[in-house]
Amino acid sequence: MSKREVIIAGNWKMNFTNSEAKAFIEKLAVNIGDSSCNVVLAAPFTLLSVAKEAAKDTGINISSQNCHWEQSGAFTGEVSAPMLKDIGVEYTLIGHSERRAYFGESDSTVNLRTKASLASGIRPIVCIGETLEEREQELTEQVLKRQIDEGLCGIQSDLAKNIIVAYEPVWAIGTGKTATGEMAEEACAYVRNCLKSLFTEEVSEKMPILYGGSMNEKNCDELLSKENIDGGLIGGASLKCDIFTEMVKIGEMH
Ligand code: PGA
Predict the structure, then answer these.
(1) What pLDDT sits at residue 2?
(2) Which of 11, 103, 126, 141 is deepest in the core (most CB within 10 A)?
(3) How far is the CA of 170 from the centre of ligand 1 (A)?
(4) Are 243 and 237 in contact (CB under 8 A)?
(5) What is the per-residue DSSP string for 209-222?
(6) Distance (Å, rounded) from C-alpha 147 to C-alpha 8?
(7) Of 177, 214, 247, which is best to mutate to test ligand 1, by the most ligand atoms within 8 angstroms of its C-beta?
(8) pTM (2 decimals)?
(9) Alpha carbon distance 143, 139 (integer Å)
(10) What is the pLDDT of residues 43-63, one digit of tens each?
């Protein structure tokens, strides 16, 4: 059994209408009942209110996929942490590799967003991971260390324990190529060591680290059995309720 909470988080990315989201959550709630896993669904902004309503009285937690660092103001197209808190959102993804690759997200904006979400009482799921090129050049550890040191600097340890880190090798996202259990564990153990240096041993031991990247109902048991992998951030496989249900059930065994 995991020493830490097991988190099975779906990342819906830019998918679903409100009626599809509602139907998904209602079905999932019936399928999983009172799950021992922490089940989180990261939905697009337009679905959050309906998702929150559908998840009421279930154990399912709702996450946004981003949040801005300012509370309000002239930031057209952005949504702030207090605005998310206002509709009851409990989690937010931060620094997903698609935001880093296509929308100019950097370690310093990840840092600002992480601090803002913590200040509003929203748990950030901070995404990190190396590209294929970086892995081939044996830069994986250097990249992970930089993303952690710069993305999570200046945060007090008592707040840091609310952070969830998602290790998602970019080359494994949406490609069907999963890191082997050994590769993923090696990286996640390294991530925990970096967290230990930045915060304290006690805090780093409490922080959940998720694996993400083509995780599915077939490979998740092996990945979740690793000491430093406390859950999954699941993209493609989170769009099918039956498959996601299976993954929650597998998570319950860890
Ligand atoms: P994937 O996406 O499971 O489709 O690879 C994971 C993610 O991007 O969080």
Answers:
(1) 72
(2) 11
(3) 9
(4) yes
(5) EEEESS--TTTHHH
(6) 23
(7) 214
(8) 0.97
(9) 6
(10) 999 999 999 999 999 999 999
